[in-house]
Specification:
The chain is α/β, with parallel strands linked by helices. The protein is built from 14 helices and 10 strands. The chain starts with a helix and ends with a helix.
Amino acid sequence: MSSLLLLQALAPAMTVPRHHFLISPLRLASAATVPFARRFSNAASSNKPEPLLSEPDLESGLYLVSTPIGNLEDITLRALRVLKCANVILSEDTRHSGKLLQHYNIKTPLLSFHKFNEREREPTILRRLHEGEAVALISDAGTPGISDPGMELARLCATEKIPVIPIPGPSAAIAALSASGLPSNEFTFVGFLPKHARSRRDRLEISAREAATQIFYVPPHGIQQFLVDAASSFGDSRHCVVAREITKIHEEFWRGTLGEANEAFATRQPKGEITVLIEGKLISDDEIPSEDFLEHELRELTAKGYTLSAAVKLVTEATSAKKKDVYALALRLFGK
C-alpha cells in the first residue's frame, strides 16, 4: 500500500502524453523502472531529447567507441551513452561524425583527431585524462585503431596507466568475414597494403603462404591493381570474396577465384569501401613439407627477385619446416 501511495504522489510530477487520459499505478511503475539505455534509445529514435532523472558519470579514461560503417542503426546503446556522457569526443572528421551525433541528439563537444594532427593533440589529451576527464575516440566508421587513428594514443595511455576502455561494435573486416563463406576459424587481418610497390609485393607473398584466410582493405581506385598483384602471388585459382558497401543500400558480396575477379573488375570501377578476403593455402597441420615442395617454393621466390635469405625466411614462415633445414636446402640449390 505504501508503494502505491508513493506512486500516486509522484504521478502529477511525471510527464504524461496528452492522449493518455488515465494511467494506472502499475503503468507508472513500469515506466519509472525502464532501463536508462532503453529510454535513451527511444529519445534518440524520435529525435526529441527526453529529460533523465539522473545522468551517470563516466569513469575517467580513454573510450574507444565503435561507430556504424554505413547503417546508422548499427550502434550499441552503450556506445550512445558513452558518447553522450563523455567530456569530449575525438573525431577523425568532425563534419562526418557530426551527422551521427546530430541523428542521436548528442551535444558532446567534438575535437578533430586524425593522422595529420594526432601527435600534436596527444599531450593535451593526456593532460585532460590525467585531470580526470572521460575522453571518447571515434573514427569515421568502425572501430578506432583498426586501420584508423587511435593505436598510438591507446599505447600511450596504457604506458601511463590511464584506463583504455573498448566499446565494441561494427568492424568491416569481421562483418565481411562472417558473411564471406571462407574459413573463419583462423584469419589474418592485413588491412591496407603499403604504398611502395616492393613492400606491397613482399606483404602479399607472405600472405599467399599462410594457411589462414587473409583480409585486406582496398581503396576503390586501387582494386584492379590489387587483384592483379594478388593473383601473381596467390595464383589465379585461389578463392576470394570482394565485399563492398557493407551494411549500405548497395551492399555487394562478389565470390569467385582471383582469376575470375580480375576479369570481373577489369572494366568495373566500384564505389565505396572495399574489403577483400582470400582463402588460405591448403596445408595440413601435421604435414611436413617435402623437399621437392620446399625446393619449388624457393625457386619460385628467387625467380621473382628475392634474395636467398628473404626466400628462406618466407618459406619458413609459411610452412612447418625448420629454418636451418630450409637454409641448408637453399645453399645446396643455389650456393652462397
